[in-house]
Batch of 4 targets.
Target 1
Amino acid sequence: MSTLDETRIATLVERFYDKVRADASIGPIFNAAVHDWPEHKDLLTRFWCSVALGAQSYRGNPMAVHRGQPSIRAVHFARWLELWHETTNEVLDEDDAARMQDYADRIGRSLRMGMGLPERLDVRPLGIPIVGVGRC
């Protein structure tokens, strides 16, 4: 039986983004982009509650936000997912951790595709332009 609720998700988001802020690889990207960490954590708690609980409390456009960060590379997505998997395993029971990891994997794949980044780190992007980006 799932114990996933808003409180558990808020705890997950809090611990996760504390790790992100301190991480040598992705910390500098996040710390440069996020100007109010409590507000950002609240926003991401609403995002994950909407994803996992159907709360419909998040209003935003993750693709636009990520596209607005030109320094993001596939390696950063990989590190983000490593930390996410680690933290979900620490904070949640096995079933809820697997569920949240699956959501993150799928969302990450979609964001990478939308940004034209490779799925795997050992391949190069094909160089195929994304339809509608940079054109009038």
Target 2
Amino acid sequence: MTNPQAKLVRWQTAELINPVAGAPRRPLSGDTRTLTMNTFEGHGGKATAGVWQATAGSFRSDTTGYIEFCHIVEGSCRVVDPDGTVHALKAGDPFVMPEGYKGHWEVDEFVKKVYFVVVTH
């Protein structure tokens, strides 16, 4: 079944409009600051998309209860798997953190990503 009222959702990533300031919930080192601009919500809040950026620091990731697709649009970082595998990521790199992913992020200076999150429960 299609929704005749549905329209394509587009947004720019250069400058975040009315972002929400924050910090990682599970910091490891540094004084990381984040900005998040949510641009889409659907399926009763179970699907969201937007832009997120972070300053230098290291922090844990835990995607329990959701899957997240990411695409780095600016800067660089490393995402480290629980087994120690290091994924060096830069602008243009897409990746998925599956449900229950418990790695950590290492940001040397700055990173910005576009994300799409789907709640799994």
Target 3
Amino acid sequence: MKQVSRGIGLVAHDAMKKDLIEWVLWNSELLMGHKFYCTGTTGTLILEALTKKHPEVEWDFTILKSGPLGGDQQMGSRIVEGQIDYLFFFTDPMTLQPHDTDVKALTRLAGVENIVFCCNRSTADHIISSPLFMDPEYERIHPDYSGYTKRFQNKSVVTEAVESVDKRKKRQK
């Protein structure tokens, strides 16, 4: 049977770090063989916990900066580059985050790229127990944004801008 290796993002707000670490340890056998991208503190703590539980396993971790220090944006770039298939982001619903705009941007990118995304343990439990998680045939649908990216293709925006600047410069002379 073909081995499945997913790109998995792991992020947790401070009040949720212990919860995410416990979830990862509980599911560690299912998580072996996958590639992980984690924000700084979360990734460091999870890798330490996994190494204690499974000292014989070589885990594939990329540890980014701390979320508020740019790690959320680094995670977002990995999503856009297609390196992350699943994002487990345990959020703290009771605490206002100083980097809330970064969190919203990351959430938006997960939706734009149509990756599997969850923000709590219950949803994470359902995702990892889904047969699709280990199904080598499953591939997410990649949205087609070509209509959006080509929206100016047959429009004269550049020509109009050049003509506008030329007119203004002629008037100033």
Target 4
Amino acid sequence: MNAGALTVAAAGPRGRVSEMQAKLHRWAVADPGRRFDDLFNFVHDPATLIVAFDRVAGNRGANTPGVDGLSVAWVEESIGVPGFLEGLRAALKAGTFRPLPVRERAIPKPGGSGKVRKLGIPTIADRVVQAALKLVLEPIFEAGFSPISYGFRPGRRAHDAIAEIHMFGSRGYRWVLDADIEACFDRIDHTALLERVRARVKDKRVLALVKAFLKAGVLTEQAGLKESDTGTPQGGILSPLLANIALTVLDEHVMAPWRPEGTMGTTYRRHARRRKGLPTWRIVRYADDFVVLVHGSESDVEELREEIAAVLAPLGLRFSPAKTRVVHMSEGFDFLGFRIQWRRKRGTQQWYVYTFIAERPFKAVKEKIRSMTHRVSQADPGAILTRINQILRGWANYFRHAVCSHTLDSLRHFVEWPVIRWLRKRHRMRWKQLRRQFTTPSGRWLPLSCNGVVLFNPASVTVTRYRYRGAIPTPWAASD
């Protein structure tokens, strides 16, 4: 690829980067076999680094330091962003930039299971370079990603995956391979992953950067520095994109019959297969969690399970025995926090696919509220209520597309009592005093509040159905 052919308008860093991404994406779509060269100039372009730093600074963990102890706030105050980025650009151009090991941090998994998830925290410089790499590589690889993949992709969300499952489940795809890849981010084979990257990227300097991040190592809390022979650490900005690149082999294999020339490429061909007693299937994937929906029998799902296991093996991946199972949709299964089940509508003989809130996230949010309203807590009441409101709003808005009116009301009732007990303990209030403060003369309860902050009512969130959107364009295709 000739970098000189890519002329960008002086529309500011964001405009220049957006235009660069749109052109890369357009070229990748036009020629699926094209290998892109001379991408490194775009990685260390000043506009790319500025946009990359802005994204790093806007992340929730911006002030969580890596192994060098530096945070975004320190960079802004001590070095200054222009000086920091100029030094980083010079190191990239000179070929002296070397990623540092990521700092490993174990955080408890939601749901109270007692298990932990290991996150890798890169340094600020490494995060900026990873973000720059992602800005350049993502539009190229998005051109070849399957529409059934929803995790960590622009313009897509978990609700789209749930809506697709709901749609196909309503059309007879009721046998399900509910699958989970065991320690996917830790076990991806580097050789297999880099082969997938090389299929579209020819620039050796970009390939060397990607490999350097994969091999940077991990500084663990107990064992010290550990080499990273496999996997891509969770927490890295580039990791989700690399995982999606690796798992395209799964998408391509399972969805091959859905190509225009395939045996399931048209509605007529799919119906013809079913008339012959042959199954049809479709995969819906969100990062390393996926389900395969089958219009057929349980034995058909078992065959697909073995076939998919063979596809994952060269990547160094395997199914999690504890989390992978074959289930009929009438039994129900959990996916991305939702409970999906085919069941009879109450009072009728008609059956529909319903989406509920799974038990695990409901327990997790209640446990969060309990921990924040512990009666011996000396934190500022207004700050505590503000944080509780943030949790409740985010949780309710995520799940508001499920059949959840009763669950949201149960959550409202649950949240009020820990807050009442906490306020009584905090202010040494008797029950009569609290009732006098938070009820009307007629005895009706008022919303709980403290220091001017009113407790959010999750039951006030409007419950609506999320519609299947079908083909979702990439942001660059839409701009074209």
